[in-house]
Write a structure and sequence with these properties.
alpha/beta
Length: 306
């Protein structure tokens, strides 16, 4: 029975070669792969946004703290900076956050990402006109609004008169990889398909071919392979600990205590997976009802196991 349970746990973890760019682990590893990672991000952004971004700087899993220690921070999958010209012809910093999401991405989470990123961009005493643009891009295999569109662009506007231009520099894009309603060029459609399913048969143009070469190189990198094994082992051990804790407590203190301990370990498992998936503390608290202190304890345990 024990061997059967262990087999099921192993089966849930795919091989590194089977991962796609939509998977958080592979995307952050590829994006952080030196100059080739920067090039990968540049190709993706320039393709789906349809404009050149030659000066990109890349940071993976960037953490932006809250206003004080009692407030939630955020961890961005891939954080990019670029210099663009504003309407006055002056260089202006723009920040791009790419989030690969296999699960729901709540609009209020995007709002929080914008607000904390804005705080980082504006120095004390600086003119608000110098505040850079913040563009959050969420790429997901599930339709966030159920309308079948490939792209949903979110910007603020004047409800009473939409013709009034209200440009505050904040934009959120939701890209649905399976969307059928769109006005996007074919290369955007092909790029999103490849991000969801990064196999060679989905390499349909030179840009994707360049990305696929980088992805293949990352998957063959021994250090990346070791990192993935550690991550998979940690997830597996967490799941096993959850079962063992419940069984042990059940034997020692009875069924009630065993169920309680099992639920506690299961909570740790859920929180661990959400942290590995890049979820903000605020979202974890909302959906699991755990405390901020509990999340920090789990984070410390994760660091010790890396």
């Amino acid at each position: 029975m024990e061997n059967e349970q262990n087999t099921r746990v192993v089966e849930k973890t795919r091989k590194l070669e089977e991962l796609n760019l939509i998977d958080n682990f592979l995307f952050t590893e590829a994006a952080g792969y030196g100059e080739e990672g920067r090039k990968l991000c540049q190709i993706i952004l320039e393709t789906i946004l349809g404009r050149p971004l030659p000066y990109l700087k890349v940071e993976v899993q960037k953490v932006i703290s809250g206003v004080d220690t009692n407030m939630h921070g955020i961890r961005l999958d891939v954080y990019l900076e670029d210099q663009e010209m504003n309407k006055e012809g002056h260089p202006q910093e723009s920040v791009y956050d790419i989030e690969m999401e296999n699960k729901e991405f709540h609009p209020k989470r995007a709002r929080y990402y914008h607000s904390l990123t804005d705080r980082k961009l504006l120095n004390a005493g600086a003119d608000y006109k110098t505040l850079g643009n913040v563009i959050v891009l969420i790429i997901m295999p599930k339709d966030p609004f159920g309308k079948g569109r490939m792209k949903y662009t979110i910007k603020r506007k004047v409800l009473e008169d939409p013709s009034i231009e209200y440009e505050d520099g904040d934009t959120t894009y939701y890209f649905f990889t399976k969307g059928t309603i769109h006005e996007e060029p074919q290369e955007v459609v092909e790029m999103l398909r490849y991000i969801e399913d990064s196999r060679e048969e989905n390499v349909n143009n030179p840009k994707i071919a360049e990305i696929h070469h980088i992805v293949h190189k990352v998957k063959q990198d021994k250090e990346v392979g070791v990192a993935y094994m550690k991550w998979a082992d940690f997830v597996r051990e967490t799941e096993e600990d959850a079962r063992e804790a419940g069984m042990k407590a059940g034997l020692e203190e009875g069924k009630k205590a065993g169920m309680k301990a099992g639920k506690e370990a299961e909570k740790r498992n859920v929180v661990t997976n959400m942290l590995l998936d890049g979820r903000a503390h605020e979202e974890i608290v909302k959906y699991t009802n755990v405390t901020e202190e509990f999340i920090k304890e789990v984070e410390e345990a994760m660091v010790q196991n890396v």
